[in-house]
Amino acid sequence: MPNTPDPTRVHPTTRPELTNVAFLSTVVSSPLIEVGEFTYYDDPQGAAEFETRNVLYNCGPAKLRIGRFCALATGVRFIMPAANHPMIGCSTYPFTLFGGDWAEATLDIAAALPGKGDTVVGNDVWIGRDATVMPGVRIGDGAVIATGAVVTSDIPAYGIAGGNPARVIRRRFYDADVALLQRIAWWNWPIPTITEHVRTIMAGDPKQLADIARREGLLAD
């Protein structure tokens, strides 16, 4: 029998002592949050509470979309668009929020405010401890976000970004290899294939991974 983690269980079945790690696809319930299999959040204070503690101001219509095989460290936060205040006039005070006469007089203004769209995190993304991702940001496949970074703008695939506001420090691979890795998309392979070639996925180079993908019929030239 294969000995690999069960993505339908909250904690890794292969390491039951890792109660600080939760597969997020098993614990999120909001229709505004979509998370791919094997993406995990690590927090000894309650990883399974990610939806309520780490996704802030999540009252739509924008969604948080996170791909497969992402690693989120303790304290990672996603600020959703509902946190934004209006800046089109004299005051930034959110009068509409409080209902009553204030809301009745300003609801059309609030509804017309420009939105930033969904917040999207690709596949195989590593986000470091206490990083904050702002509304509408898109983080590409294979990116790395440094500890404490505040991500206010898009980060390209396989970019390494840090700082406040976060800036791309360098790319993990040359552009041609980035394009190849996105075509390979190992995170979409069948789990038995990932398991068989996990050493190359973890420590090989893009060309080695491409050779495997071709042999498995998972990459066409």
TrEMBL record:
<dbReference type="Pfam" id="PF00132">
    <property type="entry name" value="Hexapep"/>
</dbReference>
<dbReference type="GO" id="GO:0016740">
    <property type="term" value="F:transferase activity"/>
</dbReference>
<keyword id="KW-0808">Transferase</keyword>
<dbReference type="InterPro" id="IPR018357">
    <property type="entry name" value="Hexapep_transf_CS"/>
</dbReference>
<dbReference type="InterPro" id="IPR050179">
    <property type="entry name" value="Trans_hexapeptide_repeat"/>
</dbReference>
<dbReference type="InterPro" id="IPR011004">
    <property type="entry name" value="Trimer_LpxA-like_sf"/>
</dbReference>
<protein>
    <submittedName>
        <fullName>CatB-related O-acetyltransferase</fullName>
    </submittedName>
</protein>
<keyword id="KW-0677">Repeat</keyword>
<dbReference type="InterPro" id="IPR001451">
    <property type="entry name" value="Hexapep"/>
</dbReference>
